[in-house]
Design a protein that fits this description.
The complex is a heterodimer of chains A (298) and B (167). Chain A has 2 domains: 30 residues, no CATH class; 224 residues, Alpha-Beta Plaits. The longest helix of chain A is centred in the N-terminal third of the chain and has 19 residues. With 298 residues, chain A is α+β, with helices and mostly antiparallel strands. Chain A contains 9 helices and 12 strands. Chain B has a domain of 115 residues. In chain B, 25% of the residues lie in helices and 7% in strands. With 167 residues, chain B is of the alpha+beta class. Chain B starts with a helix and ends in a 26-residue tail after the last helix. Chain B is globular, with a radius of gyration of 23 Å. About 10% of the residues of chain B have low confidence. Classes of the chains: A alpha+beta (298), B alpha+beta (167). The interface between A and B is large, with 44 and 30 residues.
């Protein structure tokens, strides 16, 4: 039987034609393969391997330093959780800059994944909190500090908002973004109640010697103009068993991280022995980022 | 015959278990305390030839050590430092521990903090969430003579929207 020329075939051919017409004009920024890359979740292991090798070559050429790009998948039996001790945090922002060093966000225009809110003692008012505070020394009298980053919601509104499925929650609970699939519509940013997502309005500017070359496809690999990014619990570190960079940078040990499914983990101890809360619980986003006060003062 | 065998087993196993119970200090792989890298350490290099004077007094040497906010009126050096073995710390029961195990000394008074530290709530660990960790000791963050955590200069605030770092 003669095969019919289907609607799908027509679109394919037209797309290839259009692509061929468009691509030579911008061939130095996007390759043919990238243009026709499918959604990361639908790629076969071979395709992913090929993609990562291509990206490593591209970044190495572009930034003049050897890159590794991995795509370590979520580990079975692991769901990541985070806890932050608000009676310890002194608002020094060491976490913010450790995160910047680890995750390759743009330095200028500046993007930071962690925002430290300063709040008056005696209230918990997100609207009147301040993140531009700049005293000589912290902590300041009469204030406490609440660092906010992606809360890795169990019920993430950003994922629902994405019209192209460029962002999703992986089985270990980390919401990740495929930057190659993101169309830059910023619906996810509007949907996020924690202001955790940041948009690259320009091509990220990062000094070459500050580039972290140990990267993950869904995490800290170099981003392009027009995509959204956010905290991934340092997916490039945590999926290899290491603590996120902010945990290791905190000078007061306020940041705790571990596997929620492991009964022996620090995070489980905190959940079982302290009174924890989450930001904006009434929105039913169910964050896996918990706040707690280990002390009655301070 | 059976009894003899039982005795032999008991007498060989008991010291073994005692030894492992004694070495459970290694459960807390910690960063080395700062004092071990100090030029004043080992303390015995000076103190070995000195007769210990256990009377509470103003020190002429070590005068820079000021106890601030740590029960300074009740405290005296030899409450924590051992008079006979200067390279060790002294517990209330008279036994000694090394500086690298000073959490046992601090934990005598700060019980709930010690418990939280062992659970990984108080203090800090680096390394792997799924395995080998390195612990910060009490003295990694707190000066034992003046333990309150000192205020820090914060890192710069984020730039406001519309500003860039260049201008």
């Amino acid at each position: 039987m003669k095969k019919r020329f289907s609607r799908r075939d027509f679109i394919k051919i037209t797309a290839v034609g259009a692509g061929a017409a468009v691509i030579p004009g911008c061939s130095n920024t996007i390759t043919w393969e990238e243009f026709f890359q499918t959604n990361f979740k639908e790629m076969s292991p071979q395709e992913i391997k090929h993609l990562l090798a291509g990206l490593e070559e591209k970044y190495t050429k572009e930034y003049g330093v050897k890159f590794t790009v991995k795509a370590t998948p979520a580990r079975e039996g692991v769901v990541f959780g985070y806890a932050l001790d608000l009676s310890r945090c002194i608002g020094c922002r060491r976490c913010v800059y450790a995160c910047v060093k680890e995750n390759n966000p743009s330095r200028d225009v500046q993007i930071q994944w962690i925002r430290v809110l300063r709040m008056k003692k005696g209230e918990f008012n997100l609207e009147e909190s301040e993140h531009y505070y700049d005293p000589d020394k912290v902590p300041e009298d009469g204030y406490f500090y609440v660092p906010v980053q992606c809360q890795q919601c169990e019920n993430p509104p950003c994922v629902k908002a994405c019209p192209v499925k460029a962002t999703w929650k992986d089985p270990d609970g980390i919401t990740v973004i495929d930057y190659n699939w993101c169309i830059g519509c910023r619906f996810c940013m509007a949907a996020c109640p924690y202001r955790a997502r940041k948009f690259n309005w320009t091509k990220p500017l990062i000094p070459k010697d500050e580039m972290n070359t140990d990267t993950h496809y869904l995490g800290n690999r170099p981003r392009m103009k027009g995509v959204v990014e956010k905290c991934t619990f340092c997916v490039q570190r945590s999926r290899d068993g290491r603590y996120p960079a902010c945990v290791e940078a905190c000078p007061v040990g306020a940041r705790k991280f571990g596997n929620l499914l492991d009964k022996e983990s620090e995070i489980r101890y905190i959940l079982e022995n302290f009174r924890t809360f989450r930001l904006k619980e009434d929105l039913n986003t169910q964050p896996k980022f918990f706040y707690f006060f280990s002390l009655g003062w301070g | 015959m059976k009894k003899a065998l039982l005795f032999i087993i008991i007498f060989t196993i008991c010291p073994l278990t005692a030894a492992t119970a004694g070495s459970n200090n290694n459960d807390y792989p910690a960063y080395p305390p700062k004092i071990l890298s100090s030029e004043l350490f080992p303390c015995s290099s000076c103190h070995a030839g000195m007769e210990p004077n256990i009377l509470k007094r103003e020190l002429t040497f070590h005068g820079e050590v000021k106890i601030i906010g740590h029960a300074e009126h009740e405290r005296w050096c030899l409450d924590c430092h051992d008079a006979r073995d200067r390279d060790k710390l002294r517990l209330i029961n008279g036994s000694t521990v090394g500086f690298d195990r000073l959490f046992r000394l601090c934990g005598q008074c700060h019980g709930p903090t010690y418990r939280a530290w062992r659970a990984g709530v108080h203090g800090k660990r680096t390394g792997r969430w799924d395995g080998q960790k390195q612990y910060y000791l009490c003295s990694s963050c707190h000066d034992p003579h003046s333990p309150r955590f000192k205020a820090l200069a914060p890192e710069p605030p984020p730039v406001r929207p519309g500003e860039t770092i260049r201008n």
